[in-house]
Amino acid sequence: MRCICLIPTINKPTLNLAIESAIRDGWEIILLEDILREGAVVTREKLFNMLPSSGIVRYLDDDDELLQHRTQVLNVFNENKTLDILYNNYSIEMPNKNRSNIKLFGNPVMDILRIHPWSWIARIESLHNLQQKIGYIWNPTYRFSEGGFCFLSFIKNKLNIQHVPINSYLYHPRGNPPHIVDNPMFNYYQLELQSALELS
Predict the structure, then answer these.
(1) How many domains would you assign to the chain?
(2) What φ, ψ does residue 62 adopt, rounded to 5°?
(3) What is the pLDDT of residues 80-132, one digit of tens each?
(4) Among 3, 110, 124, 126, which residue is least crowded by beta carbons within 10 Å?
(5) The CATH number of the domain where 111 resides is what?
(6) What whole-number distance in Å separates Cα of residue 49 and Cα of residue 132?
């Protein structure tokens, strides 16, 4: 089974570290530079449209790293042929190099507010079917919490979702503000996501 890692990039200096981490874990990489600065959501959808018809897929930001997990999640997909989406725990490494492990509850509805675009791995066929049904995987309306809104579409459309409690991703908060939760728009979209979840 092909294991593909999609990397949207604006060619940050950290890109090579991201690529090397995916290669170390045995992922096939498809990379797309956002030359027109259309935003990560648009670039993620374009990357998705470059996928083959089958395999498993995950996303990786160009300033983060993958931890070793591919063999474990591949085994889960191979053992459960009806599984559509698998999501994992992750680690956060701050600029001072302190690292904390984020453990999710294991319930997709309870975890949705802590789901990021890189939190999940999916069966490609399942996402192709979803895109054909609703018209997209990544809704360009949402600039924050887009991982949560994407995950909500998985729940609404009754995809088979499973949590596997391994750390698969190393998140490096960077930028201004350095952590996305400190952006004032983040809280707005989190409240909108919570309302959408309650109405679903």
Answers:
(1) 1
(2) -80, 5
(3) 999 999 999 999 998 888 999 999 999 998 898 889 999 999 999 999 999 99
(4) 110
(5) 3.90.550.10
(6) 11
